[in-house]
Amino acid sequence: MIYDCFHAPLMQDLNFSATREYLVAAPSGAWAASTISGCNTRKYHGLMVAPQAFADGDNYVLLSSLDETIIYENNTHPLYFHYYAGATPQAQPNLVAFAANPLPQWWYQIQDNTILKELLMDKNGALMIRYTHLAGTTPLRLQLRPMLAFRNMHCLTHANTVADIQVNRVSKGIGMKLYEGYSKLFMQTTDGKFQPEGYWYFNIEYPREQDRGYEFREDLYSPGFFDMTLSPGKTVVFSAGFQVQSMSVIRKRFSQLHNTVARPYTLKEHLLQAAEQFIANGKVKAGYYWFNSWGRDACISLPGLTLATGKTHLFKEIMNSYTTQIRKGLLPNNGYCDNALYNTADASLWLIWALQQYAERTHSWKEIWHEYGQILTDMLSAYRDGTLYNIHMDADRLIIAGTTNTALTWMDAIVHGSPVTPRNGKAVEINALWYNAVCFCLKVAFYAKDASFTDTWESYPEEIAQSFANAFWSNEKRYLADCVFADNKDWSVRPNQLFAVSLPFSPLSPSQRRDVINRIRMDLLTTRGLRTLAPSDPSYIASYTGDQVSRDRAYHQGTVWPWLLGHFTEALLKTDGPVALPFLEKIYDGFTYALDEYCLNTIAEIFDGDFPHTARGAVAQAWSVAELLRMGELISGFKYKPSVNITIHHQHETSLTWTQPETNT
């Protein structure tokens, strides 16, 4: 973050404090999130949003908020506010400062009393909030009112007679479970007593959902409130979780956990901490809040989240959980086991790229083939021979995928049953990934001395490369077509052609690579990533706003995606060499400002195509963070990076040519 702390003028301006969010996530998959004003503006906000034992794999909002009130000299001072139907909220006047490092902290001022509130979660997803009376000479009375939802994160709840509002007393608190199938939520405090006062609070609104065209009004149930004394210099702690806590040691435990959280200073340190939020329960969570585990996103993110963070051991643990889901050569697009959907033409090819990154990092080429060779062979064979969704190799050895009503690439938005960006046929990045996958498999098979595989596939790279150039390259336009269907070529300038340059094995000549990068740099590059369509295109949409249909139409029609910068960096360093470093460093360093713009200390999913490139979409996205980590690593490590060209001969010999990266002359 640029700012260590936000003070009263900003905190009391809801245009600022109600549009910046914080996120605290646990390895268990639970999270706490809201705006830094303390007011929930999304249905996904809540203090305990956790997985439950339902088949959908979603998180559930259990504890929506904790409404705090200070009573001092017989005057009541609410420390909270909500948006209600027909009412314009006022910012909390007692909130004088907020800081997000190393954990969310709020400072409140009531006359000569200063109260500090701090929030954290342990690895199991137990929430702890500590209140400290920092300054003042008179004890204060603190009331904490839990507001319960017990609902799927995508839905809203309303007052009903089905909810089980029975309060179960436990040591220092209560346990509640509004509906069958949920875990019981235990809420406890170190001090004071719980006062029952069950009540439904009606018509609480979430303005961000209203902006997005969704239902935005719900009712929340409160069973009562915790009432306690907060003496000068003393602390009280509130906890919420699925196990009864020992409140006699909770203060010490809070301090111990607080001391284990390192304060980030540099952009890299912020990204490293943000990366931890996306690995939960052995899988990669694609983004917060509404994305679960997606195959494509996981494979693209995995090198950045594990290899670039020094957690190499996690790579194979997570990779192996995904390879068990492969069916007919395809990795699921989203979902898991019985709920898996396989409507993707590139997820399997990105899985091969991820393994390639691991092999190059660990020099384990032979070991990779021994462990994953059969999986890799089956995937390539499925693409060659044909699999689901019309994915198959054509006579020219390029991959065809999809039909007119499917969207199998990462540009997958569909409106009213039709793809917004139709790309059925031969998509440029699918075939760049295909070429890279075949070359990589030949390389590791050669190291493992698997002559059967190399005999079968050795002729493919040269033929694919030739067909690739014939199908996609234009000597006149000097860039690659985005998609080819029969005799029709889509010459929209999109970033998908980038991968024909950035991937370790490229089917293009050096001059073609330079021309492609020059086109991308001229038409698509911004300070926040690459546009998905050139602004000169009549279909370009400058801003990602409005209801779901409007947003889906803009999703890949100009919207900027930061995850593409990892591959842009790789490609530019290949074509321009060290001369590109200052330019790339400036883009990378510019993301320091993005840490303050949307959800603090992390990177959003997307940004508007036009300046000022406002952050949009998911507030924190795995591949945004992962690929920026890879970008930083590429920049810092680029002194001399040889490129490996592998040629398979009929004699089953491999020639390795080590060359310096090309530079413009």
Automatic annotation (TrEMBL):
Which intervals hold domain Glycogen debranching enzyme C-terminal? 282-630
One GO BP annotation of this record: glycogen catabolic process
Q: Which Gene3D superfamilies match?
A: 1.50.10.10
- Boundaries of every Glycogen debranching enzyme bacterial and archaeal type N-terminal domain copy: 20-236
Family annotation (InterPro entries): 6-hairpin_glycosidase_sf (IPR008928), 6hp_glycosidase-like_sf (IPR012341), AGL/Gdb1 (IPR010401), GDE_C (IPR032790), Glycogen_debranch_arc (IPR006451), Glycogen_debranch_N (IPR024742)
GO MF, one annotated term: amylo-alpha-1,6-glucosidase activity
What is this protein called in UniProt? Answer: Amylo-alpha-1,6-glucosidase
